[in-house]
Write a structure and sequence with these properties.
By secondary structure, the protein is α+β, with helices and mostly antiparallel strands. It is built from 9 helices and 4 strands. It has a 4-stranded antiparallel beta sheet with strand order 1-4-3-2, sandwiched between helices. The radius of gyration is 29 Å and the shape is elongated. The protein starts with 7 loop residues before the first helix and ends with a strand.
Length: about 220
Amino acid sequence: MLRLLRLDGPLRGWDIPLAGLAVVIGLMLSTGPWAWAMAASIGVLLAGLAQLPWWRLAAVGAVLCVVSGIGFGLSLHQERIEHEQEQARAGDLSRAGIAEESADIVPTLVLSITQSAPDPDLLCALLTPQAEEQLARGLSVPDCAAAASRLHQPRAATAPPTTAGMPRGADPKQPPPPELTLDACATFWAESAGTPLGKIQVKLVDPNQRTYLVTGFTPCGG
């Protein structure tokens, strides 16, 4: 960057050391142990280059840069994985907060695709990531939001769906089962999504609230 700005002349050969110093400072600000190791390795390399033909120190610095660079890259990869896991856990908690009682799962899904406009937030919040993928794949669309639009296209209902023909769900007098299959084949869900997605598999996420999330779909008659 200094050379592109034509500052290497006024700096009188200090452009490379200044660039190296900027890299070292940036790595130190990241505070990771591998970043500090890489910063120290670059320092050794620069010291060796500044004292050529004393090449041994430069060679040691180069080796240290390779080793610390690999460690630094692996640490960044691990941090990325941990960040993705945290996001997944946050998504699970968010879904758990919107989970419904088993008897309300199918009416809510039907409502999400029969309102005056598609409601992907309502539809996708009730689905686990695996169910989202299965729904999108079954409808040949890229994601759950596109699935909500596709399901809404056949009909734009002006009134909320009735509970007639909706599956009853878990017996409220008994402990909630950990998993259920809700038969939505006689509802607008199967009419819109198709019979291969007509039965809805749900999993208990909060025994105290007796709430469930959709984990997948199976065909009607299966």
